């Protein structure tokens, strides 16, 4: 089934080689272990879900991937290279973008400016050139604006382009945050509970966007989600965490049948 | 003992005493910060305002006499009585409570849930307003404040040290009293916050506004209460500073020194305010003593700030603050 | 009906991101420039130059500078007075050491020197945030003022400890020194202000401006999407200090002519500029101008009414000014945290729809 060269999904998409590999990650806060000895990989073109009950360490895992937390033990491999400990902004420049569980948009800026910040790792004009607004800086700004407008079209948020983010309702904010992450043209997109707090309709929209992103841009996606239905529908493979440990890993239908997972989600029957 | 060492000891003792004065102002900051998360820049001006009011009441000045004279062409200055110190202090304390109530009504109530930095800037505005108000009410001339505290060299210490080392230490009586007053203040504040109903409510509010509200604590009452206490602390600081160097505008600048004291001690710790004050007081006196003559003197103007800045770079939470863990 | 955007179509992204997207605004802007350059210089006299126009132009530069740091990048500074002093003393040393170099170059170099000093004092901003940083910048304020007071090299060992600007010319006309005509002071400052404001506008609408605002709005998220917090904050400190340094240089060389550091660049100067930015509007170019104009005009107005009109003593008027300024700061923070700029925006919004209510 799974080989080094990848595998075929049930719906016939070709999944490539390993893009990111976490090896024996352990993360502690003081004496508390948030993550204990977890290993898994994310393959190119895949939609990979991380699930688990509250406090299982899912968000901490995402924070390790995006460089916000540095694990005490273990290695992070990205695109075939071992990653040295680096600052979050350096991780971003390697092509890893993310959204946040509690939306982290820049409230004082317009939707357009927020999405433009997503492209800052791709822009190069110097301070002087920007100050004069001539030549390179202006051309660059325009070129990137065109790319951003494509994403705005893609996520159907044209009408709020110039609205300050602070005034938007929750569902739209989530979408703008996804747009900002997409604007970075990431190799790996991390989504932390992209559907939390949404109604059914908004969830359906978001699912469609995630599948489209994966399909059209071939972006690899790792996501955390609580809605099991969504996870089973969307993802190609699932990691299950509980109390900082990995208790399951595999395609959705396999994970769903795993007795350990069932125990973690439904509780243990006491004799 | 060599003379140089004796001087240095005397200088550090005096530094410690000056530090206690800084701590007195810093205490007010800590109280307000703990209870409301507001960094009250106006604390120093509150002390100035309290001292001005005290002198004015004591000497029977007519408030706003300058304005009245300017508008009506009258020549009013004084009611012609002088009040006993105790009465004047009690009245000033009442004025400070009234001030706390007004501040809550007119300013804080409207700024609930604003970002800390906005509140900070609002207190800068408040400082300007109170400074102007104090001057308009009582006049801007330098005033002498005398509530009967002993001043001048403490003869006993002078005599004892002279007999022991052959060199008498100069310690001001007022500084010694300030040390006792500060100790008494800290003790009574601790007792108040640990053992009374309102003290418990105050700590609850400090911990979590929302939760305190949900168990029926009146946030507004607590704010008035804590600003009143801070006003009282300001009055004490104003009396000490005013007796020492007269009541004038520079008093609010001296009070600015409380800021580096707090950065050192941490904004939420009462012992921190005291220890920070002592470190700053002693540090700047010793630095001036040793390095001052080499680099032109008057280093007290900046030493405290630069020390606090360097310190913060290495320990951003202050001496007694808790480590900050960032989350997303 | 006249003030509208309907029919004013944008056909390119360049046009869409211009400074004044509405046609009427563009016209007003060019009209204002025309008056400022073509009319005012011919009418101006010493009183108007010294009481209103020159201080307004100079403070506007400082306000733009502080607004970049505080309004756009979110780093509150109480060291503005100290940085203005750096600009003033830098331009003084440059003017007296290289008398033949054009004064404009000295002023810009003084800004550069201030930028370096600003970056130095901005370094702690990586570790210290919020009002901790604000208090830390007080270290810059007090240390710099002390330095210029105590080290005689900075004031060329003059007996009074003051610095005095010698006469320097541009195109043969004096712009510093006692015999400078009012219109020359005005024009010199105006040219520099317009040029710097244009640069600041370009910076704040481009990528660097977005990075500043990202740090301001949520620094952790900014770092995770790829903003390097150190270089971004330091660039804000550098640009901001450059503006403030130029403003300090002009304040001393063109406006005051002679200065004593504690008096001209004390802590009150820091607060004055901060108040301009708050009252004008944090994070708004227009606000920097509005705030500077407001706080330059207020004392002039009060003095004319209270002292000139009612015959009150000057010190009483000064104290009442303190109360009004302090009170206004509080009122603005409560009612309109975005300052005069927001009031202006709301007014324009209304005007755009007028005479229809929606």
Describe it for me?
Chain A is α/β, with parallel strands linked by helices and 271 residues long. Helices cover 37% and strands 24% of the residues of chain A. Chain A has helices at 58-65, 88-93, 111-117, 127-132, 135-154, 170-183, 200-217, 228-234, 252-257, 259-266; strands spanning 7-8, 14-15, 18-29, 32-43, 47-51, 73-78, 81-82, 96-98, 188-192, 220-224, 237-242, 245-250. Chain A has a six-stranded mixed sheet with strand order 8-9-10-5-11-12, sandwiched between helices. In chain A, strands 4-3-6-7 form a four-stranded antiparallel sheet, with helices on one face. In chain A, helix 3 (111-117) runs parallel beside helix 6 (170-183). The longest helix of chain A is centred in the middle third of the chain and has 20 residues, at 135-154. The two termini of chain A are 39 Å apart. Chain B contains 15 helices and no strands. Chain B has helices at residues 3-36, 43-58, 65-72, 85-106, 116-138, 155-165, 173-195, 197-207, 209-214, 219-245, 250-256, 258-265, 270-290, 292-295, 303-314. The mean pLDDT of chain B is 82. Chain C has helices spanning 13-16, 23-38, 40-43, 46-72, 80-97, 103-122, 130-150, 182-205, 207-217, 219-224, 229-256, 261-264, 267-280, 285-309, 314-335, 339-353, and strands at residues 163-164, 168-170, 173-176, 258-259. A two-stranded antiparallel sheet of chain C has the order 1-4. In chain C, helix 4 packs parallel to helix 8 and helix 6 crosses helix 11. The A-C interface holds A 66-68, 87-89, 91-93, 97-98, 100, 104-109, 113, 116-118, 120-121, 123, 125, 127, 130-133, 137-138, 141-142, 145-146, 149, 180-181, 184 and C 12-14, 17, 199, 202-203, 206-208, 210-211, 213-214, 216-218, 220-229, 235, 239, 283.
Strand pairing plus helix content of chain B: what structural class? mainly alpha
| Count of DSSP-assigned helices of chain C | 16
* CATH architect. name of chain B: Orthogonal Bundle
Q: What's the domain count of chain B? A: 1
The percent of residues in helical segments of chain B reads over 70%
Q: Helical stretch count of chain B?
A: 15
Order of H and E elements of chain B: HHHHHHHHHHHHHHH
Based on Cα principal axes, name the global outline of chain B.
globular
Task: Report low-confidence residues of chain C grouped into runs of 5 or more.
Answer: none
Q: Which assembly state applies to the chains in this document?
A: heterotrimer
Beta-strand segment tally of chain C: 4
* Global mean pLDDT of chain C: 88
Mean pLDDT, all residues of chain B: 82
State Rg of chain C. 21 Å
Q: What is the name of the CATH class of chain B?
A: Mainly Alpha
- How many individual β-strands of chain B? 0
User: Which structural category do the helix and sheet elements of chain C fall into?
Assistant: mainly alpha
Straight-line N-to-C gap of chain B = 59 Å
Q: Please give the share of residues in helix of chain C.
A: over 70%
Spans where pLDDT lies below 50 across 5 or more residues of chain B: none
What separation lies between the terminal Cα atoms of chain C? Answer: 13 Å
